[in-house]
Fold:
Amino acid sequence: MSAQAHDAGTTGLDRETIDAPLFAPDAFRLSDEQAALTAKVRAFGKRVVAPRAAFHDREATFPIENFRDMHGEGLLRLCISKDEGGLGADFQTYCLAAAELGRYCGATALSWNMHVCSTLWSGPLADELEMTPADRAAHRARRSVHYQRIVNDGAVYAQPFSEGGAAAAGAIAFGTEARPVAGGFIVNGKKIFASLSGAADYYGVLCTERAEGEAASRRNTLYLAVPANAEGVSVVGDWDPLGMRGTVSRTLLFKDVFVPEDAMLMPHGVYFQAASRWPHMFITLSPTYMGLAQAAYDFTVGYLRGELPGMPPVKRRMFPTKQIAVAEMRIMLEQTKALWFQAITEARANPSREQVLRAYAAQHTVMENANAIAVKAIRTCGGQAMLKSLPLERIYRDSRCGALMLPWTAEICVDRIGREALYEPGEKDD
Ligand SMILES: Cc1cc2nc3c(=O)[nH]c(=O)nc-3n(C[C@H](O)[C@H](O)[C@H](O)COP(=O)(O)OP(=O)(O)OC[C@H]3O[C@@H](n4cnc5c(N)ncnc54)[C@H](O)[C@@H]3O)c2cc1C
Structure:
């Protein structure tokens, strides 16, 4: 049975109510273009993506039809510049749009993030980093090839960097290696938790460029678009997790995979520069969870008002305990939105230390509060609200995954804030 047919009637909340913007354009001073793009994604999320979400969650299948439809809507090329045929959205606009999508299907929004980052990192971010004129010219020519695949053919990119060791947290060099050979590289290694595995057309693999006899170094991190159908690429293992089931994040193996030089999504050394000079690049996993936080709150208000389609119109809002719970959820939601909006607004190259600390705090706050709001939503709405015929229990399970997302897990954010707030760079205790 198809996702559409199976889920008809189970997600009436998403289809029938009119949702207000997560960030009202006048209140948050969005440009007309931002207001239009976020409205477009919100409408798309509600009309197209939400009705399919429960099916893919239950079956742990990848919602590839969402990506085909996103291609039709122009959303796969959101952050590609207009002169390359894209919509030209900047970092903040992307984050706002992704948060809107997260309200309707966390797994689709999180997977969309992996795709969009391949264009955001190689595009607006790379443009703010240092390169020689020759490197910049070569980079522009190479990325243009990738962008045309997305613009013209709807190619979908994944972003596997996790390996199960300390590399994804940025502590050591990636174990997946690219050995330079004539005309390109030979890639060997393994990536775990690769969202879109088996569905993406290209895997944007972070690996260590290492010639024979050379020591592995994080400075030599290479960002390569490996075609999914290249010889030596395989997807292994199963995928049956607690939440974010539609991301289908299985394990990727690369065995002597040849990729040509034009597979480079960033020139030599530029990813290392990006990770240190453009740290907000890692906050892009949070918009999905910002959307989930809003969705848990919206569900609760609709449920207590007796307005959920498909549910008896029983009102539960008159009990003081429910009112207090909604007030507490609203306060948490407003705190989360305010901090997160500030952090995505000040994302740039070479942020100040204050801005970096705020970015960690925003990431931590979104990831922890999305789940805390969902927990409170279940407790407040009660037993009937956690049935699988309604989206809240999925929101609850999906939101639990946010704090685990490397490289800025909730624990790592706490670790860095504490250290970097108490020590100047290079400072040590005697
Ligand atoms: C739904 C989902 C989708 C994902 N999709 C992708 C994807 O598309 N691409 C991708 O690359 N990855 C993806 N990930 C992977 C994710 O970022 C983690 O790498 C993954 O959860 C594996 O974690 P682990 O248990 O091996 O983490 P470990 O590295 O073992 O870390 C476990 C915990 O220890 C703590 N920790 C680790 N290192 C440090 C440190 N240096 N300092 C302090 N604390 C530390 C962290 O809190 C971390 O949560 C996804 C994960 C999920 C849940």
Q: What stands out?
A: The domain at 177-268 is CATH 2.40.110.10 (Butyryl-CoA Dehydrogenase, subunit A; domain 2). Confidence is low (pLDDT under 50) at residues 1-16. The beta strands are 157-158, 177-181, 184-194, 202-209, 221-227, 233-236, 250-260.
